[in-house]
Amino acid sequence: MKVFKVFFIVALSLVAACPVFAKDVDSRISQVTVYPDSALITRVGTVELAVGAQEISFADIVPDIDEDSLKVSGKGTASVKIMGARVKKEFLQEAAGTHVKELEQQIQAAADELRKIGDAKSVAISKKQLLDAVLSFSSDQLPEDMATKMPQAKELGDLLSFLDASYKDYYAVLQGLDVKERDVRKQLDVLQRELAQISRSQKMKRSIAVDVEATRAGSLTLEVTYLVRGASWYPVYEARTHFDKSRVELVGFGVVRQKTGEDWEDVEVTLSTAKPTVSGHMPELSSWILRPYQPPQSASRRKGIFSSKAMLVAEDQAMDKEELMEVAGALAPAEEEAKMEYAAVEEKGVSIVYKISKKASIKADGSEERLPVLAQDLDAKFQYSAYPKASAFAYLTARVTNQKDLQLLPGRMNVFLEGDFVGVSQLAAIAPGEEFDLYLGIDENVKVKKEEIERKVDDVLLGGIPAPNRKIMIVFKTTIENYKNKDITFELFDSVPVSEDERIKVRVERVTPEPKEKDYKDKKGVWRWELKLDPRAKKEVSYTTIIDYPRSLRVEGL
Predict the structure, then answer these.
(1) Please, what's the b/e burial string for 439-467 (b: 16 or more CB within 10 A of its CB; e: otherwise)?
(2) Would you list the DSSP string of 62-86?
(3) For residue 551, which phi and psi values (nearest 5 degrees)?
(4) Segment 29-42 mean pLDDT
(5) Domain coordinates of the chain in residue numbers?
(6) pTM of the full predicted structure?
(7) Which helix (H) or strand (E) covers residue 201, if one does?
């Protein structure tokens, strides 16, 4: 019995003394969730495990990561407990990374090109010096030759032609070299600044160490997710208008760019409107206090106040850090099959998520990559709108209804009319199932013109005596002309004068035709007409305004 106890104690001591195995894992980036100002990276690696406590290392993590966002999960044939994960940092003498090496090679190539340009300039300058010598010799020799013998006209012409062509070639070559040198120096400056920016964050070797304990040997696939800066995305749309078919094809793209220091090769991409780098904690409430003015205090008296404020700021920052860890940990991208041609769209709390249906590769050089997000073919009711007081153009709009399960974000919209690019517009935030207007730019085939056809001022009584009041009558006429080969619907907006002072009297008379709506969207004096025009037809809208106010009063807007 004593022998068994001794054996058991020795066995326990041997187990306790067993070292923790360290194992590197080959990993790759499999998924990326891009936010408007950052990205959540998912890195995957598979490793074979023996029984016991082990440390698995994801080496060569290039970007500076938010350690609070680090999250680990895994599955496999091995029976494993994940004990925790941490980021290891080691300072390097030189920056590492594939993209850094590419930048260094490009910088070296640009420097070599500058040397070639410098050599070419030296050769060109040597040729010019030879030309200058020929010109100097000719200037000295010609007078001497002319004293004894008149040179032939052909000889003089050949010499002048030679000098003229040679100098022109020299200056053309020099100008071309100057332009090339300027462009190469600009390129070199951009490359050097990008290298400096990346090197500042890469002069440190980073790795993610995951501590596990395996009770059964086997394989384990680990996923680590972490938040990085240097990535962003924004939406861009294309409205492809088919006027004759009364259809609009609305296509949306997510424009992604990243400068994290490592390329994303063949990864699953999800675009999210969430902002995990912004604190989810509402600022502290404060009262609006009015007090008598007090002069600024001296620096010595402010010291104590600043110290207490600094403590409050530090507490807020600590709170934000904890909340950021909770938010980032909950934002791991969920695998989901695309529900539409371009991307699967879902709402997560207050954010919108677009999961791109195909894998993508995005370079870390800051270049923009357009990823297809959505496409919908919409029934459109086309109409024209104009506000001639502010613009002399007629604007084409299409009234459409968004899909019931699709949220549209605000963004730039490129407009194509029957296949031709006609301009750029903006798309506002549109809710699922919402009816909205697509602004498709101007149409030169529909003309609108507002003009003042009569103005009369009455401020004199009989006998030349000035009247106490001044009365102004103005007649306006707006003409709309349809030069298209089909009927159109036209919305005309105009602003009639509105008085905000009881001394100023305003009347609007002889309105032809009557507007469809007055005080449009609660805007005082903004009237809206609805008109239908046949092909090649013309319509007119006219009204008369009469403004009566005291002669001594200066009125703005007249």
Answers:
(1) bbbbbeebbbebeeeeeeeeeeeeeeeee
(2) -S-EEEEEEEEEEEESSEEEEEEEE
(3) -60, -35
(4) 94
(5) 21-87+207-231, 98-202, 380-558
(6) 0.59
(7) helix 153-202
